[in-house]
Amino acid sequence: MTQSLQRCPTLSEVLLRQAHDCTNSYKRHSHDEFSFGRVDAGQAYYQKGRQEDRIGAGVLVGFDPGEVHACNPDHGIWSYRMVFLSTHWVHQLQQESDDFACQDYIGFKSDLTACPDTFDRLYQQLQHSTDALSSEIELIEFLRPCWADQRPTRTYRADQALGRAHDCLMSQLTTPPDLTTLSQEANRSRDQLIIDFKRRYGLPPHAYLLDQRIRRARQLLSQGWSIIDTAQSLGFADQAHFQRHFKQRTAMTPRQYQQAHRGHSMPGHSLQSPPFKSLHERTFNAALDAPSNWSAAGFSPDASGRAN
């Protein structure tokens, strides 16, 4: 099994992850960045929102910021490559176009199978090229047919009460409210709250809370916080509890993540909110702190940016 983590040598907004013959599995989770990639070998069980499928070699997938998903080996081992893009870079790119200027951003198409099969060429370009101009042109041209053709079609019933329950949960990440309190905020039964919350946000309240804690943990670790301070600040019972949930969602330990991101903060980002909100956040006014951090393999890059 081999894995690598590499920042694009010419585009600092791009991170590349490659795994060969691995068995890594992930719980359903989300990222702060745009990400897309391809299965190179083996079969994978793919979950994105309420979509579930089995995919094989050559299939291209894409995920928007905040989109709950998981992709795990169906049987045995698998190989894949992923590209992570700074939300700031995508936002700026799309705002330059008249097609996107009136929106926060356009996400990926729900089905990328019809997109041109030039992923290999793009990945090699981003991995090895020393020409920033050609790398950026190659990336932009690859992405153009991958964006959705129109405004996001994911629409939900306007529901301020459910939004209040979400905000209540987000404001108390370390000491979360109980289900009764959330159901009162949402003005519905506890059972109906679980159903509606999962339909809107992709996960039931407790799993959503854990995902948001791990997203915040990635932020803090990449900013130099210690593992014990991060765990305590986010309300985990102990380091073992924190490490177990962290690895389930990132396929690496907090220390590996810390080492991989040491000295590699993304340009234009801090612990403040990004310049726009994700589809869920925008639709329901559920603001999340989401600076650009990478949920990628936990390896310590050397001076060249390659993983040890």
Automatic annotation (TrEMBL):
Transmembrane segments: none annotated. Keywords: Activator, DNA-binding, Transcription, Transcription regulation. GO terms for molecular function: DNA-binding transcription factor activity; sequence-specific DNA binding. Signal peptide: none annotated. Pfam families: AraC_binding (PF02311), HTH_18 (PF12833). This is HTH araC/xylS-type domain-containing protein. PANTHER family: HTH-TYPE TRANSCRIPTIONAL ACTIVATOR RHAS-RELATED, TRANSCRIPTIONAL REGULATORY PROTEIN. Residues 163-260 form the HTH araC/xylS-type domain. The keyword RNA-binding does not apply. It comes from Terasakiispira papahanaumokuakeensis.
